[in-house]
Amino acid sequence: MTTPALGLPMAVPADGLPARVRIHEVGARDGLQNEQVTVPTETKAEFIRRLAAAGLTSIEATSFVHPRWVPQLADAEQLFPLVRELADDNLSGKGLHLPVLVPNERGLDRALGLGATRIAVFASATESFAKANLNRTVDEALAMFEPVVARARAQDAHVRGYLSMCFGDPWEGPVPVSQVVRVCRALLDMGCDELSLGDTIGVATPGHVSRLLGALAEAGIPVAATGVHFHDTYGQALANTLAALQHGVTTVDASAGGLGGCPYAKSATGNLATEDLVWMLTGLGIDTGVDLGLLTATSVWMAEQLGRPSPSRTVRALSHKE
Ligand code: MG
Prior knowledge:
By secondary structure, this protein is an alpha/beta fold. It has one domain: TIM Barrel (Alpha-Beta Barrel). About 40% of the residues lie in helices and about 15% in strands. The strands form two sheets. A nine-stranded parallel sheet has the order 2-1-11-10-9-6-5-4-3, with helices on both faces. A two-stranded antiparallel ribbon has the order 7-8. The mean pLDDT is about 95.
């Protein structure tokens, strides 16, 4: 077997899909925080520079959570200044953003103090995960985020609201759509600019995605403010992405090389790999601005740093040597 001569699929557009998709790259944050190995700060900075050079324009850089919770990202204060200028520099002419995760007001202060202009908060659609991850009820967690979002907005920072367990929860099983709609509404009402619907344990299937996006549209939640964050635990992430695109979603989260398993689903495969996503979108004739060859080379390099191969099918296929 040989890989395709050009390293890209033939572009055959399909009806009813967006012309362009914005990939929200989470490898440096969601990916590395779920890896066993803690990567040196300079390696992380180099990773982010390479992602930017590959054409990604929305690169989540790190997390300002307490180092005790996420020791892999304990160097946020050292890392962010090393990459901050990428966001100002506007390398591609398309606007490059480096959002950072903040768990509370103290995290917000640290992020804004270092010049972050985009932040993300992390809510849960289920009580069990809110309790496990934040030690709060869903509503207590929302109340905790309210001043964070208000203060970020007051400083003109863009705010993304992550919502975990939108499809299934390891303790509660399937998650009712109405429950997800309620928390999405609350996040937008408190001032979040965009949402990211997380399938944290990877159990979503395309019909479920359609149903949730239909219910969100019915509730008046703009699809332009709705991103999706699928995990490939059961091999469904691309099918789910296609279902979301058919509903008009144009923001898709992915992790270079498929970095990051999921601590709540004991499996090697977590985040949708950015390369797998770019392969499908390129084949559909959808513009992403990403150079798949450069991105794949970046993931091969990062896999070497981590000492294990990338789980991404596309990375493996494109980097396969005879
Ligand atoms: Mg994830």
